[in-house]
Amino acid sequence: MSGYPATDHNPFRIAQKQINDCANILGLELSAREILLHPRREFHVTFPVHMDDGTVRLFKGYRVHYNDAKGPTKGGIRFHPEETIDTVRALAAWMTWKCSLLDLPLGGGKGGVICNPKELSLRELERISRAYIRAISPFIGPEKDVPAPDVYTNPQVMAWMADEYSSIVGTHQFGVITGKPLQLGGSPGRGDATARGGMYTLREAAREVGIDLKQATMVIQGFGNAGGYAASLAESMFGTKILAVCDSSGGVCCQKGICVFDLQQHKRQTSSVLYCHGTECLTNDELLAMDTDILVLAALENTVTEKNADKIKAKIIVELANGPTTPEADEILYDKGVHVIPDFLCNAGGVTVSYFEMVQNAYMYYWDEEEIHRKLDAKMTRAYREVLETSKKYNINMRKAAYVVAIERVVEAMKLRGWI
Ligand code: GLU
């Protein structure tokens, strides 16, 4: 069990390799290892949806409860044309470690539907959202499994899902899902929570590495919810200069610094960052290799691999995406001395405010945004410090250290429950 097979960039193989590496560091017994390496439950569903052109299409979706030793499972729902069960399994595993690392009383889960929202009308999107919830409704609930937004899903999708679930059970059940709009039991501060949490960890990392964020430069890969907010928050919180940004259509750069406000407006109008006034175009590969202090990875899995890791010049990598760096690339970056803030620490702000949303839903009492920011900062800063101390104690990289902290807690919960 000590040498784990090649991962082939399959996200679940990568997730399992990371678990196994951590189990070796901790010297975990086989029984604990076996449980951690496999999802506890998974659901594969198909459901018909009436399309606008009068046809009926069958869609396929998944929901995985990876580990619920610490509480109800928690994690987003992705709508993506290339969704696979292995991606959902990996993401559900990462949610388990994320919730544990932030010390939330929750387990990890994830869901996905194979579809391309860019090709769907608003009504088709609504019908898919509602049909998926009908299909998985027996397996979710405020005390069972609580979904949230993820790639290509948003507060409106969460609103339809909460409404559908509420009509199935016959009571208002806003606590079944998080990331909802404010008027439907959403939490203040949830919209930018992933990026904001990442910025709190960046502030701590910059202190550790000795970078003055006011003088620093930043490059951002991905300009969706996480990347978009990261750009504006880095600018407003620290005065950091954004040199380049890319999305799925390509990238733009400006050595003098991109005006984030203009870029956001341009993206809203044209659906892409390309050709924004005052910028030049560049490719994704060029962006990753740019001379910058900070590189933010806010797109999809497997962005930094053994093929491009040695070209990276950034001193700090902020992983707002889930799984953007392969284990092979991790080794290269560690040897180069790059300080990586690993995904399930760095992007945990989203689920942390989701947890605050669950608490507020349960109490029917809502906090103001300032209070959310303060509570989020405290949790993110504490988690960052725990990971940093563990990485120094064991002389391991930040990702392995995050695994050690998270997995130790899950194992303790499994022991207390009598599972092992
Ligand atoms: N989808 C987000 C994540 O990957 C948020 C999950 C949640 O809020 O439950 O962390």
What topology emerges from the helices and strands here?
Elements: H1 11-26, H2 30-37, E1 41-50, E2 56-67, E3 73-80, H3 85-101, E4 107-114, H4 122-136, E5 145-149, H5 155-169, H6 193-209, E6 217-221, H7 225-238, E7 241-247, E8 250-253, H8 260-270, E9 280-282, H9 284-288, E10 294-297, E11 316-319, H10 327-336, E12 339-341, H11 343-346, H12 349-363, H13 369-394, H14 398-417
Parallel strand pairs: 3-4, 3-5, 6-7, 6-10, 10-11, 11-12
Antiparallel strand pairs: 1-2, 2-4, 7-8, 8-9
Bound molecules: glutamic acid.
The radius of gyration is 21 Å
Question: Which structural class is indicated by helix and strand composition?
Answer: alpha/beta
Question: Might you state the CATH topology name of the domain at 193-346?
Answer: Rossmann fold
Average pLDDT score: 96
Give a count of the beta strands, DSSP E runs of length 2 or more.
12
The molecules bound to the chains, other than polymers, are: glutamic acid
Order of helices and strands: HHEEEHEHEHHEHEEHEHEEHEHHHH
Q: In which range does the helix fraction lie?
A: 40-55%
Distance between the termini: 18 Å
Strand neighbour order, sheet with most strands:
9-8-7-6-10-11-12
- What is the name of the CATH architecture of the domain at 193-346? 3-Layer(aba) Sandwich
* Tertiary shape: globular
Low-confidence spans: pLDDT under 50, at least 5 residues? none
CATH superfamily of the domain at 193-346: NAD(P)-binding Rossmann-like Domain
- Strand share of the residues? 15-25%
Regarding CATH, which class of the domain at 193-346?
Alpha Beta
Largest sheet: 7 strands, mixed
Number of helices: 14
